[in-house]
TrEMBL record:
Primary localization: membrane
Pfam (any one): Cyt_bd_oxida_I
Family stated for the protein in its record: Belongs to the cytochrome ubiquinol oxidase subunit 1 family.
Top-level taxon in the UniProt lineage: Bacteria
Location(s), subcellular: Cell inner membrane
Membrane is among the record's keywords: yes
A biological process from GO: aerobic electron transport chain
Keywords assigned by UniProt, alphabetized: Cell inner membrane, Cell membrane, Electron transport, Heme, Iron, Membrane, Metal-binding, Transmembrane, Transmembrane helix, Transport
Coiled coil: none
Bilayer disposition of the protein: Multi-pass membrane protein
Organism: Mangrovibacterium diazotrophicum
Record's protein name: Cytochrome bd-I ubiquinol oxidase subunit 1 apoprotein
Amino acid sequence: MLEAIDVSLVNWSRAQFALTAMYHWIFVPLTLGISFIVAFMETIYVKTGNPEWKKITKFWMTLFGINFAIGVATGIILEFEFGTNWSNYSWFVGDIFGAPLAIEGILAFFMESTFIAIMFFGWKKVSKKVHLAATWLTAIGANLSALWILVANAWMQSPVGMQFNPETARNEMVSFWEVLFSPMAVEKFLHTTSSGFVLAAIFVIGISAWFILKKREIVFARKSIAVAAVFGFLSSIYVIFTGDSSARTIATHQPMKFAAFEGLYNGSERAGLIALGIMSTTDTDESNQNLMDFNMKLEIPNILSYMAYMDWNAFVPGINDLIDGNEKYGIMSAHEKIERGKTAILKLKEFKEAKEAGNTELAESIKAEFQTKDFQENYFKYFGYGYITDPHVLIPSVPLSFYSFHIMVFLGMYFILFFFLSFLFVIRGKLEKHRKFLKLAIWTIPLAYIASQCGWIVAEVGRQPWVIQDLMPTMAAVTKISTSAVQVTFWLFAAIFTVLLIAEVKIMMRQIKIGPKVKEEGGHN
């Protein structure tokens, strides 16, 4: 089956989806975080009655609105690509994947759309408390939107709560709650949304620092930084905890991804964590360019074992263990998984042939065997491996995964210090004197976006070649359309998204230069 697939079609389809997702994720994290920051600011306004807080709230609310509108445009295209570029995938898991996406559209999107109207246009039409409720519900709705798409993504990383139906060759949901509350889904939602909170807090501090450097709106800037610094600091600490628990879940369900982003080639007990490392440009294995040796690395003993299994002496499998197998630790080789996957695919083929031949008795016998617990756990579990011919394709890009993960972690540590200093300087009233720090705050904004994108690179590149972990490789999920059609739409989307991004930046900068309105008229001051 896979021999007939055009590799360039797969690569261009992947590139198009990655392009759309990465542009979309430029807008989303700011929406997730700044909506809550605005809600906190308005809460202070309602509690104190100080009109300065209303001015602050409305300024950041305007930036939220600009970002929200353009983010929605890129998100809609993503959902269409599942049908146009990944129709085999959509058929295979549409019964499961469609449910959270439908809930996102019906519940969360409508919810935030309804309350966002009150938030922007209801200042003079509803009471303070009703308006505040609308602001909070907009923030909750925006994050609920993220919940459903992250649940769908988590299911692809760790498929649960489903059963394969040989009659339709589709996976069908048997437990919605298992899909919704799987450890992968819960941790992905908490880690991703809280990282969005961090990015938004940095955005608010960076823009506020610009006002102070320009000696404009000093009180507005100080108050904004105070709220954002506290929100960002607490969110950063929370990101560490959610990231730590996510790593343990990945070590269990996606050990190859875990080994790749940790740069662990050979497993060991009391495995050390590579805190810093520089990889060689020379191939370690000529048959696989994804494996690169380290020129230099700083390793902390035992930490990786504890991080993965909460045990300082635990064995952590490396990439070579997962490919070659390790009998001592009960790790099956990739070759064995491939053979079991082929057995599952062959059994499905025999079932279809029996059905087509009208041999109902044989078909029912094969179906019964297919659905036994033994066959599901020992053969169907490795269904996707049956499409793999070379075990080396099971290894994701180690350099890209390793560097993305470590850049994300390094920047995460820097952000904690950044928030701490921001709050310290603002409560001591010395922020204006630290002009270098204020300039650094502005330059920290792009660093927050880099860290956010790195997180998704770790998540998506690290799980290759799977579109659904162990069940469907990416190359089997792609729609068989002409490569040139994908190339044309890739460049078209690249141009449109770039124009949208430039438009957003220009509108944002114009609004920032205008600044908050000096005087509010009417409404519930």
